[in-house]
Amino acid sequence: MTIAISAAFDSGAIHLVGIEGDVVRLEIPNDHLSDFYQWFHFRVSGAAGRTLTFRIENCAGSAYPNGWPGYKARVSTDRLDWVMADDTSYADGVLTWTHRFDTQLAWFAYFQPYTLDRHDALVAEAALAPGVTHRELGQSLDGRAIDCLTLGTGPKQVWLYARQHPGEPMAEWWMEGAIEMLTDGDNPVTQALREKATLHLVPNMNPDGSFRGHLRTNAAGVNLNREWHAPSADKSPEVLCVLRAMDESGVDFAMDVHGDEAIPANFLAGFEGIPSWTDALGEKFYDFGRRLAARTPDFQTEKGYVKAAAGQANLSMSTNQLAERFGAVAMTLEMPFKDHDPNPDAVHGWDGERSKALAVSCLETLAEMIDGI
Fold first, then answer.
1. Residue 46 above 90 pLDDT?
2. Are 47 and 128 within one domain?
3. Cα 332 to Cα 352: distance, rounded to the nearest angstrom
4. Which one of 248, 334, 364, 368 is the catalytic residue?
5. Are residues 97 and 145 in the same domain?
6. Name one Pfam family in it (predicted).
7. Euclidean distance between CA atoms 255 and 253, whole angstroms
8. Whole-model pTM above 0.85?
9. Which domain holds residue 146?
10. Annotated catalytic, 334?
11. Tens of pLDDT along 348-360?
């Protein structure tokens, strides 16, 4: 049989350079109208009974080349269970792994994908849950809905939003875990939180980039997490409609959910350096991180980003903008493409199910703190 490589599906992204014997040479394409690239997702057929070596040859020019050392590609034969390719290696700008094809089909990806079909199913099910209100806040440049689920009756305004960067699907896996917990009417933590807060959840802020197989940008090649100071209808309607809704409700607590290419751990980034920084507000952010780390081995506070100096925060980023604009306890949650090294999984690495479990821990921590936020 002839080996076939395909990425013409939801979130697919790869370019076939050539097949030479048992070696498949590949490159990752750029996001549309952008220089960003790092996300890949493709299917292989016609290789049953063979062992192939895959080489992605343009990794050195990718958005985050420091993310490749120590990284392992993900592989699935049923699109449900995704495991790490243990023999993945990186050298001289080339990511390499091998796979023995005991099945007729196999899929490979940068991380366990989260498709728009799954997104639609998640939103449809949640919208039927008691006490949940669905709103379409606006539409993307390609005309896709920016869905928002609202629940709870309390005065604290909580915003949870994910996937500004579409090639970070762990963020929507996290949102699935959060939505499942918050719609569980038998969960006493959920019941208490919904009485004290009104929660607004935007599971996917960049559906166009998600479908197109982008790493970081929308249909116009724009990084949405650099648009929060001045979003526009022609470049970033996704941010514009969400920020308008936030202006209507106010924001007391906000979490922007992401993935990080290089750091092998879960961590939070805050709003140090905003003009209106106070130690009292900052302490609420730090307290959240300490409590979360005490609650689960899948979170830590030692590794993370360098903090911005006083007055140097980038207000085009959502966490900084919301802390400055509303005085919110705002934060960015980063999850790894590699693994959470303090508590590793040798088979799956960091994956969707663990992302969902971390969401539960985050919400339990929020419920514990909500009175003081």
1. yes
2. no
3. 18
4. 334
5. no
6. Peptidase_M14
7. 7
8. yes
9. 116-372
10. yes
11. 999 999 999 999 9
Smallest CA-to-CA distance from 215 within 34, 1, 7 is with: 34
**205-218 per-position pLDDT tens digit:** 999 999 999 999 99
HSE of 12, CA atoms in CB hemisphere, 13 A: 13
Same-domain pairing of 63 and 167 = no
Q: Do 238 and 264 fall into the same domain?
A: yes
Please state the rounded mean pLDDT for residues 310-339: 98
Residues 241 and 215 in one domain: yes
The Cα–Cα gap between 110 and 327 comes to: 36
SS3 for the chain, per residue? CCCEEECCCCCCECEEEEEECCEEEEECCCCCCCCCCCCCEEEEECCCCCEEEEEECCHHHCCCHHHCCCCCCEEECCCCCCEECCCCEEECCEEEEEEECCCCEEEEECCCCCCHHHHHHHHHHHHCCCCCEEEEEEECCCCCEEEEEEECCCCEEEEEEECCCCCCCHHHHHHHHHHHHHCCCCCHHHHHHHHHEEEEEECCCCHHHHHHCCCCCCCCCCCHHHCCCCCCCCCCHHHHHHHHHHHHHCCCEEEEEEEECCCCCCEEECCCCCCCCCHHHHHHHHHHHHHHHHHCCCCCCCCCCCCCCCCCCCCCCHHHHHHHHHCCEEEEEEEECCCCCCCCCCCCCCCHHHHHHHHHHHHHHHHHHHHHC
Nearest-angstrom CA–CA distance, 112 and 80: 9
Clarify whether residues 183 and 255 are in a common domain: yes
100 shares its domain with 224: no
Among 42, 74, 109, give the residue marking a domain's end.
Answer: 109
Picking from 109, 124, 153, the residue at the C-terminal end of a domain is 109
Q: Tokens representing 123? A: 């939103």
Number of domains observed in the structure of the chain: 2
Regarding whether 152 and 54 lie in a shared domain, the answer is no
pLDDT at 1: 79
